[in-house]
Amino acid sequence: MRRLGSVQRKMPCVFVTEVKEEPSTKREHQTFKVLATETVSHALDADIYSAIPTEKVDGTCYITTYKGQPYLWARLDRKPNTLAEKRFKNFLHSKQNSKDFFKNVEEDFKPVPECWIPAKEIEQLNGNMPDENGHIPGWVPVEKNNKQYCWHSSVVNYEFEIALVLKLHPDDSGLLEITAVPLSDLLEQTLELIGANINGNPYGLGSKKHLLQLLIPHGAFQIRNLPPLKHSDLLSWFEGCREGKIEGIVWHCNDGCLIKVHRHHLGLCWPIPDTYMNSKLVIINMNLNKHDYAFDCLFNHFSKIDHQKFSRLKDIILHE
């Protein structure tokens, strides 16, 4: 599977979508819903039937070089300033192409940190141009003592250049594994941050006393038994199958394109009480040498329960 090194290649819905003038249940302050119709979109052009379907997990990160070593980067979109945002919303209601709106990015957009970089493969025209939402996708490095990204920094150790990763066990697809992975093994990959205080914590990780975050590489959880590519069949699969208790599906196409369908596209709720991810056993395989980790860091806590197995992610308890 090709790993995509940024928020790159558009991710169209597998179905043609329509906009309803009612508040979104996915994005706060969005006054409309995007729902899938019965018609399959141009996803067929990307040969979706030969693509690899994977579980969609929300909360994007990126790993690339910074200060001469592998570093975790957090998603930070460059957004229009207040005046440009108002003009942009009026422009969208005129049904015109959003790409025709922004003429001067430097004047219309809020400043970003000097270390900010734009996402790869976003369209370039007189500089970094916005996407259809009026944002310029990009990244900022996660510094160790940056309180704004404290949840991100908890899953990496730059001294030993490792990251806390959740993935399938290499010898058992029915078993999840939490392990320490060298950052160098994750270079130019995008990952998802899940856990306490991340997007409502739909997987129930940690507690108020012991906050817990993990990284999931994109495409880590392949879906094996998808129904036919029909609106009604996918709707039934999301509603009635254990494997369908997920946020959505992302198809990884051979040409690098990503095609997705979210539960919200089908009028379904997210988050849900019992996710498919929480139906699997999980084992801790840190395999770390005895390093002098900070007493309160996640690496230290996981080292204390190394090789233990839990019935689900929600049951993981970190010791003092």
Instruction: Give the N-to-C terminal Cα separation.
Output: 39 Å
Helicity level, as a percent range? Answer: 10-25%
Shape: globular
Strands side by side in the biggest sheet = 6-7-5-4-11-12
Q: Kindly state the number of beta strands.
A: 16
Structural class: alpha+beta
The residue-averaged pLDDT reads 82
Number of domains: 1
Q: Extract low-pLDDT stretches.
A: 1-9, 27-33
Order of helices and strands: EEEEEHHEEHEEEEEHEEEHE
Strand content: 25-35%
What would you report as the Rg, rounded to the nearest angstrom?
Answer: 20 Å
SS element count, helices? 5
Report the biggest beta sheet as strand number plus sense, adding barrel if it closes: 6 strands, antiparallel
Domain DIX: 57-144
GO molecular function, one term: RNA ligase (ATP) activity
Pfam families: RLIG1
Cofactor: Mn(2+); Mg(2+)
Explain this structure.
Residues 57-144 form the DIX domain. It comes from Myotis lucifugus (Little brown bat). Its EC number is 6.5.1.3. The chain has helices at 82-93, 105-108, 150-153, 231-240, 298-304; strands spanning 15-20, 33-40, 52-55, 60-66, 69-75, 117-118, 138-141, 156-157, 162-169, 172-182, 189-195, 213-217, 248-252, 258-262, 281-285, 309-310. The chain is of the alpha+beta class and 320 residues long. It has five helices and 16 strands. The chain has one domain (15-75, 140-315). The longest helix is centred in the first third of the chain and has 12 residues, at 82-93.
